[in-house]
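We close this part of the discussion by returning to an individual protein. In the encoding step, the backbone of a single protein was reduced to a row of integers, each denoting a local shape. The sequence in question and its structure tokens are set out directly beneath this paragraph.
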Amino acid sequence: MGPEERTVKPPSLALLAAEGRGLLDIPALLAVAAPLLATAPRGQSHPVMVLPGLGADDRSTLAIRSFLEFLGYQVHGWGRGRNVRAPDADLSAVAARVVEIEQQSGSKVSLVGWSRGGIIAREVARQTPASVRTVITLGSPFAAPGASNVRTIWRLLTGQKYEPPTLARISRLAQPIPVPATSIYTRTDGVVAWRACLEPDGEQRENIEVNTTHIGLGFHAPALWVIADRLAQPPGTWKPFRPAPQVAIWFPATTRRD
């Protein structure tokens, strides 16, 4: 194991058991936060691909994609069915699709990835940086991919034994990517260790904390606001996220790292 893997432990079983409360974000999104989200930042229309997490398919990202379509973006699912194949099995196909979208639209593609989908998004950006505008991840443990409760989930989904990432893969995933990167994470994540989701300090990299669960990240109004804010930035004008006054209460610790 590398040093990061030794120091970052998976979430407790208590946090994993509490993951279901993230589903409460769905009625909250519909009943309470929708009017505020209607005022979220809007940027230049360009292609955005949204990638689902482990075991999920494009249906799981419907809330994110519908919101981004409402804001005027050219939204694409990943179109690969359930995300249950071996690591990197989908990477070449997704990278090729991103290049195709960029060439057809004439605009670079922003990537939004939830959990394992975020890890794929980062690796696509690493392979095709000329076609990717920015990468936004939600609960993606790229800094320490073994620090999770995925072993149990993988076995339930596939019936197969989980093979932990190799040292070479761990090292590669943790390296910064060559495009602007925003990591959205929650300290009450019961699936992956929140510390495993942190970008290292550096230019055009940031970590933004929200208060939900791993399951809730795709329906959580503050997370959706961050996605909108980051996508609204014109190319070449990247600045760290600073919440607008009307939503500042949602982000009490955007820079806390301890």
About this structure: Confidence is low (pLDDT under 50) at residues 1-6. DSSP finds nine helices and six strands in the chain.
